[in-house]
Amino acid sequence: xxxxxxxxxRSLAATLCVLLLGGVAQGADIAVLAxxxxxxxxxxxxxxxxxxxxxxxxxxxxxxxxxxxxxxAGEAYDLIIVGAPEIDAFIKDGKxxxxxxxxxxxxxxxxxxxxxxxxxxxxxxxxxxKALLNAKSVAYxxxxxxxxxxxxxxxxxxxxxxxxxxxxxxxxxxxxxxLGRGEAEIGFQQIAELIHEPGIxxxxxxxxxxxxxxxxxxxxxxAAREPDAAKAVQAFLASxxxxxxxxxxxxxxxx
Length: 255
Prior knowledge:
D-Maltodextrin-Binding Protein, domain 2, alpha/beta, 2 domains, six-stranded mixed sheet
């Protein structure tokens, strides 16, 4: 992509966002509770989202487990961004308004190591299995990628061998922190949470035959103070204008 192309995309994004958000109350503070997996994407798009009508996003980043706890505890937000199954569960429990689910991105699971460490061969399922068995320690998250990694260990028939050397990170904490400190040799997380993280080297995605795709979705909280503004933000994040930032940060648009 040329610089001229990038400028055109930013201009389109800003124009579209003004159109989408222009019909809602001026200067709205939009409270957003979102998975850290989409942090880089939303952060890059933030200037376009806040441009024009003068809205401001009040962002709370957290892990899936913490997001569920916050919503269960009665904390109120305008917009929630997390894995699609969690949005569906919130709708079922009356925490997210029915009919407001909008899927935003699709994300695969990646592998990383500490900066400068030897990158293991993960090009095939057999190679990945060998790398895991040879590793002294492995870290995975409490989010969708971590849940899948545990099922993957079972699928590969190595769950018993992996249990004593596996580390599950605290909710909202990135696997890269553990790799960077030398507390784990190999780490698994959403690709977007690995490719820009300091202190680690991204190895690559899981092999296609065992890859797992998570759909990150959004929904308007039933206690939202700015529901119309929240819907406009959803529409922008799901629009073609957001696609370049989504792809740049290791994910794909949901549609």
